[in-house]
Amino acid sequence: PCFGAMSGMTAEAWWFEVIKKTYAETQYLSAIDGEELDQLMPALFDLLYNDVFSTKKGWDIKEDVEYTLDKLKEWRDIGNGPKIGVISNFDERLPLILEDLELKHYFDVIVTSHDTKCAKPDKGIFEAAAKGAAVRDPAACYHIGDREDTDVAGAIAAGWRPMRFNEDFDED
Questions:
Q1: Which of 3, 35, 160, 162 has the fewest CB atoms in 10 Å of its CB?
Q2: Buried b / exposed e across 98-133, counting CB within 10 Å, b at 16+?
Q3: Which residues pair with 111 in a beta bridge?
Q4: Contact 32/23 with Cβ under 8 angstroms?
Q5: How many Å apart are CA 95 and CA 71, to the nearest integer?
Q6: Per residue in 108-165, pLDDT tens?
Q7: Who contacts 2 (Cβ-Cβ below 8 Å, separation ≥6)?
Q8: What are the counts of helices (DSSP H) followed by strands (DSSP E) for the chain?
Q9: Close Cβ partners of 124 (under 8 Å, ≥ 6 residues apart)
């Protein structure tokens, strides 16, 4: 939970164990014997953790994200617009990734489960975001997320107003 923060691990050490376990337990990848996997892990981990998923190489920006963020930023910057933040069940690399994706400048606050030691739907991560944005009334906060079990449930638990992004237009 929380990418190792709850157990005193670094996110890097936590991810190392996740990747190693994935290779050891996935049917086709488990054909690699344990000794060979131990030899491959440092280079494999460095590639995945540092070269791919700590940079923009490992991430896709959805089509309308920049347009939407531009409009929210314009509204915020002319006055009385919302503060804009990210609440993510992720680790401390998120601000650097957003910087590499050229998105960080949109956000007033970036809160991760690793930093707060609580993950959505725990209301603590939402409270940390509100505090970081200097918003005292949770009813003034909106959260847009794609999952009912974490995003919607967590926002409701924190007294926020949830909005669900339902990309697939499913029945939820």
A1: 35
A2: bebeebeebbbbbbbbbbbbbbbbbbbbbbbbbebb
A3: 87
A4: yes
A5: 21
A6: 999 999 999 999 999 999 999 999 999 999 999 999 999 999 999 999 999 999 999 8
A7: 113, 114, 116, 117, 118, 119
A8: 7, 4
A9: 116, 118
Summarize pLDDT for 2-27 with one digit per residue, the tens. Answer: 999 999 899 999 999 999 998 888 87
Q: Cα(135)–Cα(142) distance, rounded to whole angstroms?
A: 11
Q: Say if pTM beats, i.e. exceeds, 0.70.
A: yes
Residue 48 buriedness (CB in 10 A; 0-12 / 13-18 / 19+): middle
Q: What gap in Å lies between CA 161 and CA 141, rounded to an integer?
A: 6
Looking at residue 43, its amino acid is: A
